[in-house]
Amino acid sequence: MDVTALKKQLNQNAPANVYLVLGTQDILRQQARHLFNQLIPADQQVMNVGSYDMEVTPLAVALDDAVSAPFFGERRLVIITKPYFLTGEQANHKIEHDVDSLLEYLMHPQPETVLVLFAPYEKLDGRKKVVKQLKQVAVEISAAPLSEKQARQNVLQQVKHDGYEFESWAIDELVQRTNADYGLMVNSINKLELFGFQAKQITTAGVVGLVPQSLDQNVFDLVNAVLKHDQEKAVQHYQDLIGSAEQPLRINAVLVGQFRLLIQVKVLTHHGLSQGGLAQALKVHPYRVKLALQTVRSFSLSVLQQAFLGLVEVEQQLKTTQREPQLLFELFMLKYDREVS
């Protein structure tokens, strides 16, 4: 179930006893939490809403709250966050949790309590008995990162609900500048709607003026200039990044990471992996894989490797010499042009 379906279910005022919100997309977890909080009237929330972080609070404290009757209200809401004991990670925490008590609770949930576990992880350890029981009992809400298509649809729906519309190409510009990160897109909506208040329209000019490009997107433009041997444009992009107070080592690290991704995509595509398979195997956002696929079609593996190795050499020089970062980048461009021309 996604957050939209959760909203429809909770609006019927018939929530389940146990929910699991699983995934790493912070904005989706925030939206889900807001919906759950609305189950309890504002004047009852102090007494009937409890939130417990498992990295600092014993599980028993949360479960004691869960089995308690609501205080002058219809129901109690108990939220458990960061339940790392449901994963396979060996967390170095001093808190001892009685996981068997959770297993027992899941077998007999308190009818007047809505227990919600917010698990900000990609997956749980399905071998654990408590996880198996949780999967059987709980309604699972996905907070996994949205695909580009899903992010577009959700943002378009939100803007339409607010009484606005996107000018042609404005949504594309927003996707590009945020790398299709749904959280970044949502966080941009308020200022874009304020900018377009009179016309009730979000314009491309508004997106360009108000939504800064991510470092990854700026570096992607720089990568394209490098691969096309456009020294003037590449140096200009590099200067712009330095001018925006980005550290040379960080710029170079992102460049190295981008070429590493291109090489990985080139190799794995040759082995038959699809866009979705690549995103899963490389653990990167599908939109980044989409852009990488568009790039690697035009370049050989050896060309990508030469750029990667050249930038690794630049990184070593940045760490061991006092030479100007821009000079090192320009020398890299000259050497790269000679080697692949």
Please state the second-level CATH architecture of the largest domain: 3-Layer(aba) Sandwich
Gyration radius, to the nearest Å? 25 Å
Rounded to the nearest angstrom, the distance between the terminal CA atoms is 52 Å
Mean pLDDT across every amino acid position: 91
Query: What is the level 1 CATH name of the largest domain?
Result: Alpha Beta
Strand composition percent: 5-15%
DSSP, total strands: 7
**Structure annotation, total helices:** 17
Structural classification: alpha/beta
* Low-pLDDT segments, ≥5 res: none
Fraction of residues in helices?
A: 55-70%
| Whole-number count of domains | 3
- What string, H for helix and E for strand, traces the elements in order? HEHHEHEHEHEHEHHEHHHHHHHH
Strand ordering within the main sheet: 2-3-4-1-5
Could you give a quick summary of the protein structure above?
This protein is of the alpha/beta class and 341 residues long. It is built from 17 helices and 7 strands.
Give a structural overview:
The protein is an alpha/beta fold and 341 residues long. The protein folds into three domains: 3-142, Rossmann fold (3-Layer(aba) Sandwich); 148-210, Helicase, Ruva Protein, domain 3 (Orthogonal Bundle); 215-340, Zinc Finger, Delta Prime, domain 3 (Up-down Bundle). Helices cover 58% and strands 9% of the residues. It has helices at residues 3-11, 26-37, 45-48, 59-66, 99-107, 129-137, 148-161, 170-178, 182-195, 204-210, 215-227, 231-243, 248-270, 275-282, 286-296, 301-320, 325-340, and strands spanning 18-22, 49-53, 76-81, 113-119, 139-142, 165-166, 201-202. The strands form two sheets. Strands 2-3-4-1-5 form a five-stranded parallel sheet, with helices on both faces. Helix 5 (99-107) links the parallel strand 3 and strand 4. Helix 8 (170-178) packs parallel to helix 10, helix 12 (231-243) packs antiparallel against helix 17 and helix 16 packs antiparallel against helix 17 (325-340). It is globular. The N and C termini lie far apart (52 Å). The mean pLDDT is 91.
